[in-house]
Structure formats: C-alpha cells, structure tokens
TrEMBL record:
Protein name listed in UniProt: AAA domain-containing protein, putative AbiEii toxin, Type IV TA system
Gene3D superfamilies named among the record's database cross-references: P-loop containing nucleotide triphosphate hydrolases
A single MF term (Gene Ontology): ATP hydrolysis activity
Annotated organism of origin: Chryseobacterium vrystaatense
Start and end residues of each ATPase AAA-type core domain: 354-422
Family annotation (PANTHER family): ATPASE AAA-TYPE CORE DOMAIN-CONTAINING PROTEIN (PTHR40396:SF1), ATPASE-LIKE PROTEIN (PTHR40396)
Amino acid sequence: MEEDETINELTFYLSGNNFNEVEKKNIIVLTRSSWDDMFSFSTLYSVIYYNSDGERTRLGAVKIGQVNMKSDQRSPNLPSSFTSLDDNFFSLGQDVSYYEELNEISDAFRENFLNSLNDLAYNNEMYKKAYNERVTRISLMRDISHVSVIGQFRRLAQGTSVLTTYDFDFILPNGTKLQNSESSLHFSVVPKSNPPTNIHVVIGRNGVGKTFLFNNMIMSLLYPNSSKYGYFKTSSRIKSDFFANLISVSFSAFEEATPIDEMNKGNISQVSYSYIGLKTEREGKVIIKSPTILKNEFARSSYKCLITGKKQRWLRAVKVLETDPIFKDSEISEIANFKGGFEDFRKYAANIFVNLSSGHKIILLTITRLVETIEEKSLVIIDEPETYLHPPLLSAFIRSLSDLLIQRNGVAIIGTHSPVVLQEVPKSCVWKLRRIANESIVERLDVESFGENVGVLTQEVFGLEVTDAGFHNILKEIVERADDYNEAITYLNNQLGFEGKAILRNLLFEYNEEN
C-alpha cells in the first residue's frame, strides 16, 4: 500500500561489519549472495526495507555492477553505507516482482530508491552507458533480455502498471426490450494499441437510457448476488476481485438517481467504490454540493496525491489539461511546489480553484480524484462529461484520462451524446444506443470514429434527427420555393457555409427528381 507520509532520505547498508549496531528504521539492507555468473561475477544482492516504524519488507533481488570492473574483480566495490551510488555504479532488478514491490510502497519511495541505485530500467541514460559493460552482459542481463528492460521493467520502474488485456461483457438485465440487437455489450482493451483502447464509449441522444444502463452497471458490481441489474462476465460471471475498484463520475445536477455514499455503503460487495460528482447525502437527504464543499474536496484530494507518492502522476495529468490556455494561465501545476501543512495548503489550493470556471473546476476535481483513486484494473464509469465543457477542453480531458488509465492499467466506459468524444476513440470501442418505441437497440458504428469529422459522426449517430432539425428545416423550406440554386442562395443573402451549400445542392437535386 502507498504510504501516507513524505519519504525521508534513505540510507543503504551492506549487511555484516557493524550493521547490527544500526537502528533498523528507514533503511535499506543489501545482502550479497554467493551466487556467481559464468564463474566471473558475483553481483546478486537481496534487498530488505525497514520503514520508519521498523516494519520489514523484502523487495527482492537486484544485481549491482561497476564501470570498468577489472578481470579479477568479482563484485562491485560498494561502500559499507551510502545514500546514493555515484555514476560508476548501476543496478538492475532481476524480476518484475522487484519493481512491483517498490510500486506497492509509494511512487516517491520508488523514485528515490531507483535513483539512489542508478537503476538501468528507470534511467535510460545510465542504461545506454552501462549496456556494453562486460558485467552487464554476463551478469546483470544474463537472464533478462533487452526487450524486457526497455519494456515491462521500464514501465514498472517508472510507475506504470504492467498492461493486461481487459476482455469482458456486460449482460443486460432480464426484461430489457431489445430489437434485433446485441443482448450484451463487449469491451476489450488491447495493450500497446494505437489508438488506445482503454476508453470505451456508449453514445446516444438524451433519453435513450445511457444513465439507466450505467446505474445498472454500478449496481451489478455493488450488489453481485442480484441479477436484476445485469452482470459483468468473461468466460463466466466475474468474481468480486476482477476489478480492483469501481469509480463513478457524474456531474449532472438533474439526474434522479441517488449516489451511493462511498464511505457508508456498508458491506454491499467486496469491490472498493468511489463516487466523484455534485451530489452528497446529508441526514437522509440528497443535496447538491456547495462551492465550499467542492473546493475543499479538491484541496484534500490534491494534497493526498502530493504526500502519498502520486505527485508526478498528478502533474502529468494536469500537464495534459494545460493544453487548454485557461488551465495553463492558472498555473495549476504550481500547487505541487507548495511547502507547508494542510491548512495552509488548503487555503492556497482553494484560492486557485475558486477562480476557475465551472467547467474547469469540474475537470480539475475529476482528474485529481481519479489520480487519487485509480489503481490497476480500476473500472471508471463516467456519465456525460461534456455537460460543462467546450470541445477542446473535452478532448483534453479524454486524452488526460486515457494517459492516466494507461499508466495505471485501468479502463473507463463513458456515456455521452457528444461526437467530440467519439473522435478520440476507435469504433471498436463504441456502442451506439438508440430507442424505437419501448425497445432499445445496441449496435456498433458503421464508420470509423477515431479522428473522423464531427459532422459525419453526428449523422452516423443521430441520422434523421439531425436532418429534421435546425438549419436543415430552413433549407428544406427554401428548396420548395426556389427555382434553382442561385435563387435559393439569394433567399439566404448568400450567408451559408460550405457544408450547408453542399446540403442545399443535394436537397435541390432530390426535390427536382421527385417533382
């Protein structure tokens, strides 16, 4: 688990000599093994960590090398104690579990530890420097390939989870009326795919049942013994430990559903649950959070991110958001440099937060809470994030979310009616939800969505609803009165965009064909 304290400077000790006189708190102990490689080098050490309470954690095995080791030098000439090795030394963990153990403690601890040992997976420049050393090839990388070092090991060393394929379905509840469509929704996340597949989208107009679907997804995980909400499955119905945790995000003030209080949900299920949104429950009544509650929520969450080793992850997420000029001008990332206790920090962070627009506040709070809560195999369900956002900010949010999910190996399902969201994901990650009378239709898109024109996506998703509304109606009325294209343009005082002119020509052609 990640420690809730700032990591102090670590001291490394070689076991033996006067080590028994050392107080075993906040230290690392390296014990050299008698194992050697090719009868040439003996570089293997077991690593034990004693935290500030004296609790002992075995981190695993590491090999430590030295630049220009002499032919008769079997082991590196390590000092008996040190806080960090100089550039003549370098190290490499001997299994993924080594880096996983470091990640379990905290990001700050991992970074401090790996920097101190000049870890080759963590430090690419050091890797380049040490790669051709004889001790590296014969000993440190004897059982480890180059691909592993720059791939799986490096991701873990830099705090990114090992990417695991997600492949699951949501089975719709009994009684759901479907018309010639799927009875389940399939979701698949493919590691290293481009475009990324860790964000999935359910799109449809207002009122087709997106929120109802999402509530069923949430309730099916929180009440796993009931089938009335539907259920998630792989080859069989998933167990409670399939998802590490469940995070629900909704900032609509008008939805009737009552959010489940994440602190008082009781023993509903074993899955950890977090709610990020505008509503809260007080004395049995659902209320909308006040601006004071929201700013304090942001301050608490951001402070927790900074002191529990998630600082760099939070900064990375905010940097993506800072492609938006308002975020950039607000210097949100400067919060990470604040020195002082929580009360002073709360005032400082809240003062920055209150000066943002409603949309920017919601996105900053959401991303901060997600950095705080997302773990490996988190399921994030987000209902209509576009409610308060203009398109460029919405795109920045989706990209920041995707980057965070890739780092932590999580997956998100977003409900939306915005084609802008579709532009950010491939069609294999999109479900279109529509309704005819009392029956729902769930289907895939016919066109590729990633990077597609918003107009094309709008037509694909909403079809006749688009052509029967807005400026389309005005053009249809003009076509019935005008004799030709030039006369139709005159009716509009030549005030018609390029796409509108193309639509007008097509409408005139169809009208003349029919008449």
